[in-house]
Amino acid sequence: MGQRKKRALIFAMIAVLVLTMSGFQAMAEDEMPIEKASGEAMAADLVLLRPLGIAATALGTVLFVASLPFSATGGNAKGAFNKLVGEPGGFTFARPLGRVEY
């Protein structure tokens, strides 16, 4: 792989990480009402839904990076980021434990 391609790939990965972290921070700043959840709901969320959400966020990040040249030229990179990375990331990291809806 050429030096130029390596640098472009590294730059794209860093850009995705920065965008991801800023998107999660913005989601976390939104006030979400805390509802009381049962212990069973919290356990199921922790054991089943959070790992699936992490996998969905990782897969969405890979898909976003792959689609970035096309979405950037089409002018909808922000929308692609929100759908592919932001929504799964918000579901995984920004909602209270045991609360299923986001």
Explain this structure.
The protein has 102 residues and is mainly α. The chain has one domain. It is 78% helix and 0% strand. The chain has 3 helices and no strands. The chain is elongated, with a radius of gyration of 16 Å. The model has no long low-confidence stretch (mean pLDDT 82).
Write down how many β-strands occur, each being a DSSP E stretch of 2 or more residues. 0
Count, helices: 3
Question: Describe the biggest sheet?
Answer: none
**What is the arithmetic mean of pLDDT?**
82
Number of discrete domains: 1
Q: Please report the distance between the alpha carbons of the first and last residues.
A: 42 Å
Computed CA radius of gyration, to the nearest angstrom: 16 Å
Decide which structural class fits the backbone. mainly alpha
Report the sheet-strand fraction.
under 5%
Instruction: List segments where confidence is low: pLDDT < 50 over at least 5 consecutive residues.
Output: none
Helix content: over 70%
Instruction: Provide the succession of SSEs.
Output: HHH
Overall shape: it is: elongated
Oligomer: single chain
Secondary structure: elements and pairs:
Layout: H1 3-29, H2 39-74, H3 77-93
Name some characteristics of this structure.
single chain; 102 residues; mainly alpha; 3 helices; 78% helix; 0% strand; elongated
